[in-house]
C-alpha cells in the first residue's frame, strides 16, 4: 500500500524495535539513508532499539557499519528497507521476518513490496527522502549532526557531486540544511572521492582499454585476472563506474566486472539514452540513466553491448525538439 510520511511516522512511533535494511553492494546513498534514518529515529526516541543490518560496506566503513542482529529480534519488530528497488537486492534475507514492512526508495517502483511503500523516482536519492521524512516529523525524528553527515554523503554520492539531472533546487536546499548542522562536509567529500593507488591504476587501464563504437556507446571489461593483479577487492572496482563518462563523445557505457563464478556484474550509465530498460531485460534495473544487472556469460555480455550500441544510435537519430 502506498503511504505518506504521516502514516510511516505513525508506524515508527508504534514499534519499540526497528530494523533498517538496504541493498547489497551498498553505495553511499544506501549506507547514508540507512544510517541517517536509524540515527534520527534513535535521537527522537532514545528508548527504542534501532538496528541497521546488511553485508559488509567495504570502503564505506567510515560512514557506518552493519550490526549483528539475532533472529528473534525481528519478532514484533518494524522493518524498513531503504534505497532498494526489488526484494532480491535486499541485503539480509530476514527483511520479511518482522511484524510490519516499509519500503522507502527513489528507484522506479517495479516491485511494490512492503505493507507500506513510499517511492519517489524524481528524488535525487533515498537520503533526500529521509531528510524530507525527518522534516515532516515535526521534531519526532531528530536531524543530529551525525545523521546529517551520512545523509549528505548519500546525496553527494547519488547526484555525482550535484552533476546529475536528478539534482533539483530542493536537493540543494536539503544539502544546505544538512551542512548547517556543522559537520565537516569537506572531509565527507574527500572520503567519498579519494582512491588507492591500485584504484588509480585501474582508472588508467580503463582509459587505455575502453572500447568505443564512435557513435556514443562504450564498454569496458574487468577480468578476475586484472582484479587479482592489482590486489583489489570487488567493491573497490566500483570506483571506475563513472570513468568512461569523462570522455568526450561517450553518451552511454557499460562496465562488465567478472565475478568469481564466471558471471558478470554489469554497470550501466548514460548521459541521455534510457538504459534501465536494457538492465531490466538482463535481471536488473535501476534509474533511467544509472542501472545495474548481471550477465551469465560472454554471450550475454555481447548481447548487452549490441543493445547499448543500438540504444545510442537510436538516441542520436531522434528528431531535435525546439
UniProtKB/TrEMBL annotation:
Keywords: Hydrolase. Residues 17-155 form the DDH domain. This is Bifunctional oligoribonuclease/PAP phosphatase NrnA. It comes from Lapidilactobacillus achengensis. It holds the Pfam family DHH. Residues 229-308 form the DHHA1 domain. It is an enzyme of class 3 (hydrolase). The keyword Hydrolase applies. Its EC number is 3.1.3.7. PANTHER family: BIFUNCTIONAL OLIGORIBONUCLEASE AND PAP PHOSPHATASE NRNA. It comes from the Bacteria. GO terms for molecular function: 3'(2'),5'-bisphosphate nucleotidase activity.
Amino acid at each position: 500500500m502506498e503511504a505518506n510520511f504521516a502514516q510511516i511516522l505513525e508506524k515508527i512511533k508504534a514499534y519499540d524495535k526497528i530494523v533498517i535494511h538496504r541493498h547489497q553492494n551498498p553505495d553511499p546513498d544506501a549506507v547514508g539513508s540507512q544510517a541517517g534514518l536509524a540515527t534520527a529515529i534513535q535521537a527522537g526516541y532514545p528508548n527504542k532499539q534501532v538496528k541497521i543490518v546488511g553485508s559488509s560496506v567495504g570502503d564505506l566503513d567510515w560512514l557506518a557499519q552493519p550490526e549483528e542482529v539475532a533472529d528473534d529480534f525481528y519478532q514484533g519488530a518494524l522493518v524498513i528497507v531503504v534505497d532498494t528497488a526489488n526484494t532480491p537486492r535486499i541485503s539480509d534475507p530476514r527483511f520479511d521476518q518482522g511484524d510490519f514492512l516499509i519500503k522507502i526508495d527513489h528507484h522506479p517502483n517495479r516491485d511494490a513490496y512492503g505493507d507500506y511503500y513510499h517511492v519517489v523516482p524524481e528524488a535525487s536519492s533515498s537520503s533526500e527522502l529521509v531528510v524530507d521524512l525527518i522534516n515532516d516529523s515535526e521534531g519526532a525524528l531528530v536531524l543530529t549532526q551525525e545523521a546529517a553527515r551520512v545523509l549528505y554523503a548519500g546525496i553527494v554520492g547519488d547526484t555525482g557531486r550535484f552533476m546529475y539531472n536528478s539534482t533539483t533546487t530542493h536537493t540543494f536546499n536539503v544539502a544546505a540544511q544538512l551542512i548547517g548542522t556543522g559537520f565537516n562536509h569537506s572531509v565527507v567529500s574527500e572520503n567519498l572521492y579519494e582512491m588507492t593507488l591500485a584504484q588509480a591504476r585501474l582508472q588508467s587501464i580503463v582509459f587505455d582499454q575502453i572500447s568505443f563504437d564512435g557513435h556514443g556507446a562504450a564498454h569496458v571489461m574487468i577480468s578476475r585476472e586484472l582484479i587479482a593483479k592489482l590486489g583489489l577487492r570487488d567493491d573497490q572496482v566500483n570506483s571506475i563506474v563513472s570513468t568512461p563518462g569523462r570522455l568526450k563523445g561517450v553518451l552511454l557505457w557499460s562496465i562488465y566486472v567478472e565475478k568469481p563464478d564466471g558471471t558478470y556484474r554489469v554497470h550501466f550509465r548514460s548521459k541521455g539514452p534510457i538504459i534501465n530498460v536494457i538492465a531490466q531485460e538482463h535481471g536488473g534495473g535501476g534509474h533511467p540513466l544509472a542501472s545495474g544487472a548481471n550477465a551469465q556469460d560472454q554471450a550475454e555480455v555481447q548481447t548487452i553491448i549490441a543493445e547499448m550500441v543500438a540504444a545510442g544510435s537510436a538516441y542520436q537519430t531522434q528528431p531535435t525538439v525546439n
